[in-house]
């Protein structure tokens, strides 16, 4: 795609100030949240996160074996039944799954979505920041946020409005001790475990983010919704693809893409 100068913009700035146990977000609170839709569908197949003018990030299990021509991605929407005129829709030009993605182990569960046209930042749509440092390797103790239109209970119906939930990040070793039938690798990050609060079916591919200490309030993406053991079950955290583990691959793919600055 030909390089085009972007208007000045900053990433990770939130708005007006499938989620279990979530609260309804304020409209356009999180400008980077996107839905990946089969064309013609009301509900998104998966979530996604805008990271540059040309790319969003989702989970590889959402894209593997699928034809990008069958999909579109939508930004700036809150209520799926009443999409505003300010919403932005792009056809998906390409799925770029992580080269080490292992569907059996659900390892490196990440895919970059390239759009057919640039998504310029507006007052309603802008990208999130990628981690500014890889020194915070575990994020344990941080409160993270995840959003989605997915099921509000295990095997339940999806939500028409965007929901959010705040989840504590836990150590991978603790996560492995709990999810004994799963293999938690260093390429994953775990969050949650409180009863009734979790990501769920339909939230896959959405982002998990934090507000770094001393950042001035901008948000940084630390995970991609990958898998879990049920939804919102007490003591059972959700598992996310760890952004710092795949960041070098992301940076290589998006190197020529137009980006917003970190505040």
Automatic annotation (TrEMBL):
Peptidase S1 domain span: 19-255
Keyword Signal in annotation: yes
GO molecular function: serine-type endopeptidase activity
UniProt-listed InterPro entries: Peptidase_S1_PA, Peptidase_S1_PA_chymotrypsin, Peptidase_S1A, Trypsin_dom, TRYPSIN_HIS
Entries under Pfam families matching the protein: Trypsin
Gene Ontology BP annotations: hemolymph coagulation; proteolysis
The reaction(s) this protein catalyses: Selective cleavage of 103-Arg-|-Ser-104 and 124-Ile-|-Ile-125 bonds in Limulus clotting factor B to form activated factor B. Cleavage of -Pro-Arg-|-Xaa- bonds in synthetic substrates
Enzyme Commission number(s): 3.4.21.84
The entry's keywords: Disulfide bond, Hemolymph clotting, Hydrolase, Protease, Serine protease, Signal, Sushi
Descriptive protein name: limulus clotting factor C
